[in-house]
Amino acid sequence: MSENQPRQYPVMEMFYSLQGEGYHQGKAAYFIRLAGCDVGCVWCDVKDSWDASKHPVLSIEEIVQTALAHPARLAIITGGEPLLYNLDPLTTALKAAGFQTNIETSGSSPMSGQWDWVCLSPKKFKAPLVDNIAFASELKVVVFNQSDFEWAESYAKEVHPHCKLYLQPEWDKQAQITPLVIEYVKANPKWELSAQLHKYIQVP
């Protein structure tokens, strides 16, 4: 590992649960939530992740060994905004330990890491880099108001043809927004509903 590559990362939390969103919904996975974010979504449900200085810094070895204590070999790197960091060393170590590596990102920082699946969730507060759009395995747009449907379509035109398309109601407004998303998906079946299963079944 070269001197300019990180050997440790600020980590808000790590936990074993089920993926509640998008294409891999329902699968057992080990979540690694890196601390630090410069996007600043007003409706973010993990604002505690924004300030990296408030969270412990863990070595790659600590992260991987903790993940290995659980039976699933699906590791999901999330945040915060995980692409604030060079993720090449972390994903190399996870893959060497037998993990499939997935990332959930706004795409607003340069891409790094070796990924089996890239969930691109663009945000109006800081747009994804144009080069990152091509990496998207799935496009997941959080719907906060009616205008977000048109905004989602603008990104659907940019991703590759095999990219999975998801609309996800913002949780605090889900009672209001979910019916709108359902009707939109029925009228535009290239999209699917991502309903944050983990919150409904009350797991992390």
Structural class, by secondary structure, is: alpha/beta
**Which oligomeric form is depicted?**
single chain
Biggest sheet, strands in spatial order? 3-1-2-4-5-6-7-8-9
Give the CA-based shape: globular
Radius of gyration: 17 Å
Number of domains: 1
User: Span from first to last CA?
Assistant: 33 Å
The CATH architecture assignment turns out to be: Alpha-Beta Barrel
Helices and strands, in order, run as EEEHEHEEHEHEHEH
Overview of the structural elements:
With 204 residues, the chain is an alpha/beta fold. It has one domain (8-200): Alpha-Beta Barrel (TIM Barrel). It has helices spanning 60-68, 88-96, 130-133, 148-156, 174-187, 197-200, and strands at residues 8-18, 28-34, 57-59, 74-78, 100-105, 117-120, 138-143, 164-169, 191-193. The chain has a 9-stranded mixed beta sheet. Strand 8, helix 5 and strand 9 form a beta-alpha-beta unit. It is globular.
How are the SSEs placed, and which strands pair?
Blueprint: E1 8-18, E2 28-34, E3 57-59, H1 60-68, E4 74-78, H2 88-96, E5 100-105, E6 117-120, H3 130-133, E7 138-143, H4 148-156, E8 164-169, H5 174-187, E9 191-193, H6 197-200
Parallel strand pairs: 2-4, 4-5, 5-6, 6-7, 7-8, 8-9
Antiparallel strand pairs: 1-2, 1-3
Summarize the entry for a quick read.
This protein has one domain (8-200): Aldolase class I (TIM Barrel, Alpha-Beta Barrel).
Top keywords for this entry?
single chain; 204 residues; alpha/beta; TIM Barrel; nine-stranded mixed beta sheet; 6 helices; globular
